[in-house]
Amino acid sequence: MRLRSLILLALFSLTAGAVCVGAIRLQESPQEAKMPQSPRTISRSGYSIARLPAADVERLAKNLTPEQYRVTQKSGTEAAFCGNLLDNKKDGFYACVVCGLPLFSSEHKFNSGTGWPSFFTPFDKDHVAYVKDESHGMERIEIECARCGAHLGHVFEDGPRPTGLRYCLNSAALNFVEKGQPIPLASQPLPLKTAYFAGGCFWGIEHRFQECPGVAGVESGYMNGSTEAPTYEDVCGHATGHAEAVRVLYDPAKVTYRQLLDGFFRMHDPTQLDRQGPDVGDQYRSAVFTTDAEQQREAEAFKLALQSSPKYLGRKIVTVIEPAKRFWPAEAYHQDYVERTGRACHSVNPWPEVFGQDKAPAKAH
Questions:
Q1: Mind giving me the DSSP string for 266-330?
Q2: How far is residue 11's CA from residue 141's CA, in Å, rounded to a whole number?
Q3: Conformational region of residue 16, where left means phi above 0, alpha means psi within -120 to 50, and beta covers everything else
Q4: Would you state the pLDDT for residue 339?
Q5: Which residues of the chain are modeled with pLDDT < 70?
Q6: Which residues are catalytic?
Q7: What pLDDT was estimated at residue 44?
Q8: Any bridge partners for residue 288, and if so which?
Q9: What CATH number does the domain located at 3-187 have?
Q10: Distance between CA atoms of residues 338 and 36, nearest Å
Q11: Domain with CATH 3.30.1060.10 in the chain
């Protein structure tokens, strides 16, 4: 598919009049383009991309110069070859001049000869929003800051490899933060925490945690085995002792560790020993791998309360709770598997129940 088709497909998949936010992201394949995108409030690199209220944007915009205001708030375009960042070759990143969200990196900048700063990919796909632009008798794809909606420029299909794209930016829409210099607070990632879970095939567990509000990123991998750098084939051979696990990065201000535990125990059956449904083997065991004493205590207390609940009367919860050893990321084809392919896995979405009530441990799966 061509660029315009990919992005417009994402746009038209939304309900009429919906605001274009970071969830509308440039797709990398026809398969991904067909996938519905879930709105994110935390980007994959750990930044808050929750859409700022109009009043907050208006307040921030008061600090802009007249040219910055014209470009970012009125969808203006600066004159070619006049932007102060066009010839900048220093290492660092380019942030939104309004809200500070990092948008592009110096390592992805190239000389397009067009007269505007050009990049072949964003700092993070979630940080840029795409909007259909039919002004001036043309059909183009406008790019905005996903957090504040500031107009940045446009994206075209005449860029270099590996993306073949050219993100054409206005210098007036950007602030440059040089490598080694203090990073402004507005341009810093959230103070995320890490949690590890194993509950059968990691494809489904990864996908369900990706749906959790407050979760920034989830990665599939192998944990708590006896060998270094295991492969999928090694783990499936049942000789390494590794579990198929996921690493969850989350914002504790948006989702608590207890809520993650609640969701985890809802999304799989913790009474099945070394298996989950048709998947059989020690790599499919149910486990919580803790990063510190506090997580260990909280996980053990949650499991004990859950075991005492009527749901598990006469059924033993076999979930292992132990300190996390090294996490080995799985091969690339395992990452974001459900999101990329659309193929369902064994788990169910637990988050409506988790966030609908925050009482005693989970009722049912």
A1: HHS-TTSTTEETTEESGGG-EEEEESSHHHHHHHHHHHHHHHTSGGGTT-----EEEE---EEEP
A2: 11
A3: beta
A4: 85
A5: 1-39, 346, 357-365
A6: 168, 201
A7: 86
A8: 197, 321
A9: 2.170.150.20
A10: 12
A11: 193-356
